[in-house]
Amino acid sequence: MTRTRKPGVSRRATLAMMGAGAVTFAAPWVARAQAKTIKVGMPTILSGRVAQLGTSSRNGVMLEIEKVNAAGGLAGRQIEMVIRDSKGQPQEAARVARELVNTDGCEILIDAEASSGAFAVHEVARDLGVLCLHTNSETSALTADPKQHIPNAFRTARQGVHDSIVGGSYAAAIAKAKGLKKWATCSPDYAYGRDTTGEYVTYLKRFAPDTEIISESWPKLFQPDYTEVVTKILQAKPQALYSCLWGGDLTSYIDQANIYALFSQMEVFAVNMADYTALTVVKNLPKGIHSGNRYIKTYPATPENAAWGDAYKAKYNEYPTNWSWENATAIMLLAEASKKANSADGKKIAEALRGLKIKSPFGADGTVTMRAEDQTLVGYAIGWGTTIPQEPYVPQVQAGDWKTIFELEAEWKKSKGYT
Amino acid sequence: MTELQAEQAAAVPQAEAGLQRSRYFDVLIALAAFAVLAILPMLTGSKALLDFVIRCSAFGLFATSLNLLVGYTGLVSFGHGMFFGLGAYGFGLIMQRTGVPVPVAFVATLVITTIIAAVIGAICVRLKEIYFAFVTLAFQMLIHSTILSWVSLTGGDQGLRGGIPRPAFFGIDLSNHVHLYIASCALLVIGLLLMRQIAQSPFGYTLRMIRDNANRASFVGIDVWRAKLTIFVLAALFASTGGIIMALFVSGAYPEFAYWTISGEGIFINMLGGVTTFLGPMVGTVLLLILNDTVTRLTEYYGIVLGIVILFFAIGLRKGLMDFVVEWYTQRRNGPGE
């Protein structure tokens, strides 16, 4: 019986296995259907602690895609977005990006990854030569470092060094006016926190040389309890505090520092405060926190910007984030460049993107520019103001001066050996 | 069944010949597998399929090497991912900083891994069970934190940037996708073959003995500590090779490669594929990657699907897929009557 059954079973089993294998293998690698639509791939983070990065980036993109498609798409081709989760892992980001291009037939990548994921996607863009727009990474080196430079990758996000220059000069002016000499810092302990704080302090000291840092705290990213950090700062008795905590970390920090009445004892400069994700979540938003603008619909104080913020709110029932405008800008630039090149071809769009200036709700003067030399966004609204506990949260924003930014940025690049 | 074989093999000289024969058989299978993989690019133009196999090579080497510890020696390491990360960073840094030829960097990375694994292993393998697991995890976090904070060398949490240069050697150009694919397949097949030889050697059977009864092994005269340390270092070498393949694939190295989640993934692959057969982890790797790739295409709620699959394997099958298949097969062959 054993003998007679054995061949039958193994054949059936083999067939079943082969069938299952064929199905699983064939499904992801179906041949690309070259339709009239143009596919745009977007690897981003849709799960885990920073899932909001992905969802609000996606919202920003989709809001604009609808408009572009209604107006005829890219050179007559409707855009189809293919958005996929990388779970915040760089090797997944690289894989997803490759898959989007190689399997799904995406001709353009919107890289909405954060930090290391963006560098992983950058390498994919280098390898495949596909047009890639980085929308969320603010790490200056991504575009400033000539070693990173490739002709087909652009950044439509803020840049760390711009923020530091504007933040440093704003803080220095207030430090001089109010006599703030003793400063403390409190920033998350990873590359963004360390770099941003370091650059900020450099520019603060440059504009106000008599300031000194008397206390530094480096809480872990996503730390739930800030009691020891708060008490450490209070014991040091600084006159001013700088922090680049963001999102949930910033809101927990403020809620906990409120218990110790920290905000009445010193001037606080929190660069990431003026973003709705933080503003609307804090229980008792203290008055008078200095913050850089991330996204706020009242700055720039133009009807276009307010309308954009309201349209977003109407559609998604929440306010846009900093990531939303950065991603929306990518689509606006794509559409404009494609119109200029009269083509949906990646190379031609890239050519048209270099130096392209477009009208934008997020521009300091109503326009933003894709700077040709390092292929990064400039001219976006950047400024600092102080908070009030209710809408509009940051009623008056003092604009940063782009002329100063350009000068100091060039100097910074030289000091880093980038030029 | 394997235990029986072990005792026979140890005693009878005839078994030597049997071992020799099975070794030839393994080599034949390896050659056949490599041949099949090597002609794949000629049959299909799908770059995604090649990408898939490259990733399978990286994770397959990693997971199989973990099984040498978990399945064969009974050392449940929660920190095996550190060697994966070490391989990726070691290789990436050597290529970026020194510009030596690829094979030199490859060997140098393995040498570095050997040294570090020997130091860490010497401390860890004295410990048993949960203590071993936790101390390996602790070392992994130490290495991960070092990578994060040594920004000037490693680039911190942004990882190694700027791509990994890969000058051609012996006519092999790893920046060419097909060359990289063939090289990964070769490393995978050679790695699996070597690990198979380790597992089937008298040393491999010593490991099984240690797993089943360390006291008995030591009474027989085996230096248990030395045997455990040896396999710890050997497993680290294969994990490191997996890391090198991954570094070449993404053209960089990122702190996530040395994070505990990679070790967790390794453990999960072993659960999925099964730890009692040699190819279990390899099957688990293929399964997990197919699952990962298809599910992330279909839904962003990847976690819930994976969770259900874990539950199915943990509560439903109560063993890995290969364990299940092998058991089912032997049952069928022996017939219901026996």
From TrEMBL, chain A:
InterPro entries: BCAA_transport (IPR051010), Leu-bd (IPR028081), Leu_Ile_Val-bd (IPR000709), Peripla_BP_I (IPR028082), TAT_signal (IPR006311)
Leucine-binding protein domain boundaries: 37-378
Biological process terms in GO annotation: amino acid transport
PROSITE patterns for the chain: TAT (PS51318)
CDD domains noted in UniProt: PBP1_As_SBP-like
Signal peptide: 1-26
Keywords for the protein's UniProt record, in alphabetical order: Amino-acid transport, Signal, Transport
Recorded family membership: Belongs to the leucine-binding protein family.
Protein name: ABC transporter substrate-binding protein
Species for this entry: Bradyrhizobium valentinum
UniProtKB/TrEMBL annotation, chain B:
Major subcellular location class: membrane
Record-level Gene Ontology MF annotations: branched-chain amino acid transmembrane transporter activity
GO (cellular component) term, any one: plasma membrane
Keyword Cytoplasm: no
Matching InterPro entries: ABC_transp_permease, LivM-like
Localization per Swiss-Prot or TrEMBL: Cell membrane
Keywords of this entry: Cell membrane, Membrane, Transmembrane, Transmembrane helix
Membrane topology: Multi-pass membrane protein
Transmembrane segments: 24-43, 49-70, 102-123, 130-151, 178-199, 231-255, 267-291, 298-317
Domain of life: Bacteria
PANTHER family: ABC TRANSPORTER ATP-BINDING PROTEIN (PTHR30482:SF17), HIGH-AFFINITY BRANCHED-CHAIN AMINO ACID TRANSPORT SYSTEM PERMEASE (PTHR30482)
Protein name per the record: ABC transporter permease
